[in-house]
Structure formats: structure tokens, C-alpha cells
Amino acid sequence: FRFKDSLAEDLRGADLVISHAGAGSCLEALEKGKPLVVVINEKLMNNHQLELAKQLHRDGHVVCCNCSTLVETLQSMDLTALKPFPPGQPEKFALFLDKVVGFQ
Amino acid sequence: TGGHTTEILRLLSCLSESYSPRHYVFADSDKMSEAKICSFEKKRAETFPNSQFTLDRIPRSREVRQSWTSSVVTTLYSMLYSLPLTYKLKPDLILCNGPGTCVPVCVSALLLGLLGIKRTIIVYVESICRVETLSLSGKILYYFSDYFIVQWPNLKEKYPKSVFLGRIV
């Protein structure tokens, strides 16, 4: 398919996700606890869009590769080495904001 | 726009009912945010039935990778809309997270503050996608916001006046 409103259903049923380095795609897959292989196409992406993919890779949450190394990566990767991605904590933001505006 | 809207709605998810009414301002060219916002507010109304919110559109201040000089012109054009809107709403608090749309709104609020009309607290939260560098809106509002929040330690080091709370979306 070309575009869907939401990939949530497809993600739920997947055992492995292979994605480009877009932040939304990466985060969505990680939050659902799916092992993620991020394919980086340096020619296509802005520098800043790679920042998140690189950081996630450094933190051990995703497997990274580029288009030409995808096949060998899929063959040799160790998904068990991936670390789970803890959810963000908007509660911390709420606490901070309450202090800022004076709602204690 | 898109990712920004999703992030900001997550930021709002744990806020108490005291943060009301909520006024959402977004770009006129944005087709998807309205649906996401309405869906969020509808769900919120299940817990807080007296929830109030409004939606306002202003011209998009900058396209992706638009040049500096033309961006100044388009931002000034957006201010023709954001200034009367901000004057009308007189917000106590502005929460923004990086789309070009936030710059004319914040500048309008700063202007109203300088003129003694309304003092608004400006809180900027940089996107989770920004690990090493700030967005253009971020670079500008780092100096003009009251609180500037980053989500990765690298940025806290580079921008010492920022606040680091960890990942909050």
C-alpha cells in the first residue's frame, strides 16, 4: 500500500519492523516493543533526521544498516541484544509545568 | 504539523484541568492536526466534561528548507494574523514545540508583553527528534522563551540555560 492513516494494526501483528530513519516510524515501532531494523539512506535524509536513528542505535535500541547492507544485516543480526525502549514520561512535564505556573 | 502535533498532545496528556481553556494554533496548510486535536479533546472530555478548547489557523510561516530571507517575509506575514489573535486570546501560558508556526505566535506574545498589555509565560519543548542540534525555531526561542526544555542530555550540555527532564513524550 502507499499510505494508510495508521500503521498501528500492522505493527501489532509484526514480529520484526524494517523502517527508514523517520522519527515517527522508529518511535511507533519501538513503543510497541517490536524489534526494529532502521535502514539509513544518507542521500535522501536531512542531517537532523538521522540524529534520532543514530542515538537509538548508540543506546542499543535498534539495528542500523544502509540499503546495500540490508540483506547481510538481516542474516547476521542478533535481535536479542536489543534493549527495550522505555516510554516517555509526560507526568514529569506536568509536574514541572505546575511549578512554573504556580499550581502546586 | 504532523509529528509536532502528536508530540504536543502527549505533553498535554498529563496536565490537570486547570489548564483550560486550551487554544490550539496551527498552520492553515495543515490538514491533519485538526482531527488529531479533536480526537484528543474528545477523549479528554470523558474525564473532564467541562473541557474547553478552540482552534485557530494562521498562515504557515515557513516551508521546510525555505531560505532565511524569504522566511523572514513569510513570518512577518503570519504575524499579521498572529498578533490580533494573541491580543484577542491574551494567553497566560504559551506551550510550543517547534513548528514554524510557533515563532510568530511567540513574537506576538513578546510584543504584547513589551507594550505592557499582557505578560505571557512561554514554554518551549524541543522535539524528541532533536538529539544533537536545535531546530530553527528552537535556536530563536532559546533566547526568548521563559523555559526551554530539551529531551536529550547532549542538548542540555550545548544549551546550558535549557531544562532537561528526560524523555517526556
3D structure, described in words:
The complex is a heterodimer of chains A (104) and B (169). Chain A has a three-stranded parallel beta sheet, with helices on both faces. Chain A is α/β, with parallel strands linked by helices. Chain A is elongated. Chain A is built from five helices and three strands; from the N terminus they run αβαβαβαα. The longest helix of chain A has 12 residues, at 47-58. With 169 residues, chain B is α/β, with parallel strands linked by helices. Chain B has a single domain (2-164), classed as Rossmann fold. Chain B contains six helices and six strands, in the order H-E-H-E-H-E-H-E-H-E-H-E. Chain B has helices spanning 2-12, 33-47, 68-89, 102-114, 136-144, 153-158, and strands spanning 22-27, 53-58, 93-96, 121-125, 147-150, 163-164. Chain A binds chain B through residues 23-24, 27, 47-49, 51-52, 54-55, 86, 88-94, 96-98, 100-101, 103, and chain B through 2-3, 6, 10-16, 18-19, 92-93, 95, 121, 123, 125, 127-133, 135, 146-147, 149, 151-152, 163, 165-169.
Number of strands of chain A: 3
What's the N-to-C terminus distance of chain A? Answer: 49 Å
Query: What would you call the structural class of chain B?
Result: alpha/beta
**Strand arrangement in the largest pleated sheet of chain A:** 1-2-3
Domain Glycosyl transferase family 28 C-terminal (chain A): 1-87
Keywords (chain A): Endoplasmic reticulum, Glycosyltransferase, Transferase
Main location (chain A): endoplasmic reticulum
Enzyme class (chain A): transferase
Secondary structure layout plus pairing:
The complex is a heterodimer of chains A (104) and B (169).
Chain A: H1 8-13, E1 17-20, H2 23-31, E2 36-40, H3 47-58, E3 63-66, H4 70-76, H5 90-101
Parallel strand pairs in A: 1-2, 2-3
Chain B: H1 2-12, E1 22-27, H2 33-47, E2 53-58, H3 68-89, E3 93-96, H4 102-114, E4 121-125, H5 136-144, E5 147-150, H6 153-158, E6 163-164
Parallel strand pairs in B: 1-2, 3-4, 4-5, 5-6
Helix pairs in contact in B: 1-2, 3-4, 4-5
